[in-house]
């Protein structure tokens, strides 16, 4: 009996102990996870200032509510760094430039001509100064003129006249020779008939409508640049100009022209790339009339794909423009550095459209200034303007005397 009681007691104790263990472990599972012992868990803000804390209120001062805090007036001071607001700049309106006056430009730009053309003039003077002007010397004179692209017929004429005058003169001083050569070269640049060409770029229609100038030439000759420079020349002379960007063939030609226009405050009428040049030319003239502009300048595309293609294109431009008003001037732009090739181009264009004036570009970059003589002879049309550089005001009215003076020096 005692044994049974003892066994019951032991059993109760064992069951009680096991039950306590199970309940204890369940309670542990319900507690939040604890950091491993030995690692302090920070739950309250530390008394030490931390990076990023606001400036601390001194401990002995009572804390104030946010309403009580006075905001200091911030005075801009020289020492305090000023935080600048980012300025969003509106696209600046293009600044309108004042082009140089056009009178006497060739004289001003003579240094450019002298640099490129001097060899011709100096060469001729040296040859003419020889003691004995024998056949060989005259041949050398001819060669010098031909090398400068003066052309065969004008060269022969010039040599003939020089021979005759030197013979009559007898003894020759350097001054006499210079005068002689100067006179003959100037005569060669004229019509050869005693009267000079009219070299004025015709921009006045004499009608209510604006003067209309069409600029033609092979792409790359400097056509668009020349149209832009010419706009400046006209603006410098007090005229209002509308530009027609009818060179829709060369990508960026319209942008280029528009930039030239903006620089002097001239509006550009343009269409889509590859669009119809004639309709742009038509719109430009319409705009010019509506604006009461003095001159409309039309830049055309100069692709020499086929003569018929060119003829169709330029012919159409001319026809549609003339629905509004007559064309006053058709300027052919030729690159002086291309020599004989330039003459071939001149011939083709002259067959397609009535050229009334020639612009010779890049005369600053060639010693072949004789092309002026050759091209005038070829077309029977005067050189009216010459390009002497890439600068905005490097387009000059052509003056035979100033040109010859640049060649042989004064
Ligand atoms: P386009 O295709 O005929 O319209 O030719 P651009 O007007 O674009 O001109 C072709 C290049 O010739 C450009 O780089 C111009 O700056 C340059 N150019 C035009 N005229 C002259 C000039 O008189 N002298 C020089 N040195 N370069 C020129």
Overview of the molecule:
- The protein is α/β, with parallel strands linked by helices and 410 residues long.
- Among the domains are: 87 residues, Up-down Bundle (Four Helix Bundle (Hemerythrin (Met), subunit A)), CATH 1.20.120; 145 residues, P-loop containing nucleotide triphosphate hydrolases (Rossmann fold), CATH 3.40.50.300.
- Helix content is 45%, strand content 10%.
- The chain has 13 helices and 8 strands.
- The protein has an 8-stranded mixed β-sheet with strand order 3-2-4-1-5-6-7-8, sandwiched between helices.
- α6 packs antiparallel against α13.
- The longest helix has 29 residues.
- The radius of gyration is 44 Å and the shape is elongated.
- The site of guanosine-5'-diphosphate (GDP) has 19 residues, from α7.
Could you give a quick summary of the protein structure above?
This protein has 13 helices and eight strands. By secondary structure, the protein is α/β, with parallel strands linked by helices. Residues 217, 219-225, 250, 253, 361-362, 364-365, 387-390, 394 line the site of guanosine-5'-diphosphate.
């Amino acid at each position: 009996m005692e044994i049974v009681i003892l066994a019951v007691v032991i059993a109760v104790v064992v069951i009680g102990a096991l039950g306590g263990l199970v309940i204890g472990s369940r309670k542990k599972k319900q507690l939040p996870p604890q950091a491993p012992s030995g690692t302090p868990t920070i739950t309250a803000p530390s008394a030490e200032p931390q990076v990023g804390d606001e400036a601390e209120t001194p401990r002995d001062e009572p804390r104030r509510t946010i309403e009580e805090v006075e905001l200091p007036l911030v005075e801009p001071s020289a020492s305090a760094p000023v935080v600048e607001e980012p300025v969003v700049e509106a696209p600046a309106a293009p600044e309108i430039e004042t082009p140089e006056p056009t009178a006497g430009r060739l004289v001003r730009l003579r240094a450019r001509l002298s640099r490129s053309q001097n060899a011709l003039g100096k060469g001729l003077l040296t040859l003419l100064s020889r003691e004995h002007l024998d056949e060989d010397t005259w041949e050398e004179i001819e060669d010098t003129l031909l090398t400068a692209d003066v052309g065969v017929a004008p060269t022969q004429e010039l040599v003939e006249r020089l021979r005759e005058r030197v013979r009559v003169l007898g003894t020759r001083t350097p001054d006499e020779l210079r005068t002689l050569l100067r006179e003959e070269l100037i005569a060669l640049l004229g019509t050869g008939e005693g009267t000079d060409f009219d070299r004025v770029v015709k921009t006045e229609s004499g009608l209510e409508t604006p003067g209309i100038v069409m600029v033609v030439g092979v792409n790359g000759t400097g056509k668009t640049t020349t149209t832009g420079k010419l706009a400046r020349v006209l603006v410098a002379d007090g005229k209002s100009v509308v530009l027609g960007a009818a060179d829709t063939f060369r990508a960026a030609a319209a942008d280029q022209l528009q930039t030239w226009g903006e620089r002097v405050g001239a509006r550009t009428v343009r269409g889509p790339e590859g669009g119809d040049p004639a309709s742009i030319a038509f719109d430009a003239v319409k705009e010019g009339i509506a604006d009461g502009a003095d001159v409309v300048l039309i830049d055309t595309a100069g692709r020499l794909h086929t003569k018929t293609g060119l003829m169709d294109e330029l012919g159409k431009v001319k026809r549609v423009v003339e629905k509004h008003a007559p064309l006053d001037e058709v300027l052919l732009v030729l690159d002086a550095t291309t020599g004989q090739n330039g003459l071939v181009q001149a011939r083709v264009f002259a067959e397609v459209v009535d050229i009334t004036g020639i612009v010779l570009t890049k005369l600053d970059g060639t010693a072949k200034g004789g092309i002026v003589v050759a091209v005038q002879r070829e077309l029977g049309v005067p050189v009216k303007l010459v390009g002497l550089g890439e600068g905005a005001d490097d387009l000059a009215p052509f003056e035979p005397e100033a040109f010859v003076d640049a060649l042989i020096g004064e």
